[in-house]
Sequence to fold (68 residues):
Amino acid sequence: RFEYKLNMNSTRKSDRLYVKENWMRRKYLDEELTLQEIADICGVSAMTIRDWLLRHNIETRGRGQRGS
Fold:
């Protein structure tokens, strides 16, 4: 049996913070949050966050790495 949940709280593009490049840069680069931490804030998967980092041309860190 396959089940899934839809997150109906963030259906509009303007509500999805990860769509905003400046917000993503601040959270990922400046605050050094992990993909999972950002995903938890946004109510999406870490892979969704990874996809949007790539769309915003933000280079991702290696697994388990924070900052420099």
About this structure: The chain has a mean pLDDT of 85.
